[in-house]
């Protein structure tokens, strides 16, 4: 990997933690699929990067956190894994194992940021107490952003520049039983993520959509784009029905009741 590529990708990693945008935008940049896309654009291999991103994205669907204690670093998993696959030609199964390890290790940087963040809070309180409101932008924007350069940008750039090509050889040198174990663990994580997402839907009435969509995707033979378009149209139709008080299940029930009443009248 070239130095400028490592610097650009390290800058994206830093950018994903800035938090200057709405929460939904921040989450978008934090996802492995988005991070992998940028890796592909920078390294000139978008198809491979998107395959890596789509493979490891389900692994992080069920990620939860308590009190802002981050257990996995999604952005680092996408950037480093996609870079390693493109630079060293690692297979996807081994890449999934790398994503698990990278996500766990790099998450400790965020825990460090949370600890140091208490200092910026104290400095903000000091400025407010002294009525130095013109300095609040220093403790809330400038100082935290500069610290994140040291915490995120520089380490990520160094890891990519010196290790993107070597991690693949390191993983290939692991014992076969350990590689198989990591591969099995990585294969289970997408299933766990999907199950957690399914259980968090909250409405039992939506489970038929989930199961039907899975069966449709497995046996229809359509591409991902076709399935996505069909899902969007179905979601739009159901949304319109609910807004009009005409939910599909309610319609069916009312239709049966009206038919019974008409039958009695006849």
Low-confidence stretches: 245-266
Number of strands: 0
End-to-end distance: 80 Å
Query: For the residues shown, what is the average pLDDT?
Result: 75
String of helices and strands = HHHHHHHHHHH
Tally the helices: what do you get?
11
The largest sheet is: none
Residue fraction in strands = under 5%
Apparent shape: globular
Helix content: over 70%
Structural class: mainly alpha
- The Rg value, from CA coordinates, equals 24 Å
Give the total of domains: 2
Subcellular location: Cell membrane
Keywords: Cell membrane, Membrane, Phosphotransferase system, Sugar transport, Transmembrane, Transmembrane helix, Transport
Protein name: PTS system N-acetylgalactosamine-specific EIIC component 1
GO biological process, one term: phosphoenolpyruvate-dependent sugar phosphotransferase system
Gist of the model:
The protein is mainly α. It has helices at residues 3-15, 23-30, 32-43, 46-56, 74-88, 92-129, 136-172, 176-199, 207-219, 224-243, 248-265.
Model description:
The protein is mainly α. It folds into 2 domains: 3-200, no CATH class; 203-266, no CATH class. 79% of the residues lie in helices and 0% in strands. It has helices at residues 3-15, 23-30, 32-43, 46-56, 74-88, 92-129, 136-172, 176-199, 207-219, 224-243, 248-265. Helix 5 (74-88) packs antiparallel against helix 6 and helix 6 (92-129) packs antiparallel against helix 7 (136-172). The radius of gyration is 24 Å and the shape is globular. The chain starts with a helix and ends with a helix.
């Amino acid at each position: 990997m070239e130095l400028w590529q490592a610097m650009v990708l390290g800058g994206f990693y830093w950018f994903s933690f800035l938090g200057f945008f709405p929460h939904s935008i921040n989450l978008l940049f934090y996802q492995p699929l988005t991070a992998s896309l940028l890796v592909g654009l920078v390294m000139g291999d978008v198809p491979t990067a998107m395959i890596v991103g789509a493979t490891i994205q389900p692994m992080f669907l069920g990620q939860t956190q308590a009190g802002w204690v981050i257990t996995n670093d999604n952005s680092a998993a996408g950037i480093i894994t996609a870079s390693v696959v493109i630079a060293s030609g690692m297979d996807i199964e081994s890449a999934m194992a790398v994503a698990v390890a990278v996500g766990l290790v790099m998450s400790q940087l965020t825990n460090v940021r949370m600890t140091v963040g208490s200092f910026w809070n104290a400095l903000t309180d000091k400025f407010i107490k002294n009525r130095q409101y013109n300095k609040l932008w220093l403790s809330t924007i400038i100082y935290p952003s500069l610290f994140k350069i040291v915490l995120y940008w520089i380490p990520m750039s160094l890891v990519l520049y010196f290790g993107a090509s070597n991690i693949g050889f390191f993983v290939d040198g692991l014992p076969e039983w350990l590689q198989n174990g990591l591969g099995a663990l990585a294969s289970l994580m997408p299933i766990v993520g999907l199950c957690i997402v399914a259980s968090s839907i909250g409405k039992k009435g939506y489970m038929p959509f989930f199961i039907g969509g899975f069966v449709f995707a497995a046996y229809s033979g359509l591409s991902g784009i076709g399935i996505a378009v069909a899902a969007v149209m179905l979601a739009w139709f159901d949304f319109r029905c609910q807004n009009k008080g005409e939910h599909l299940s309610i319609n069916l029930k009312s239709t049966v009741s009206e038919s019974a009443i008409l039958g009695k009248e006849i």
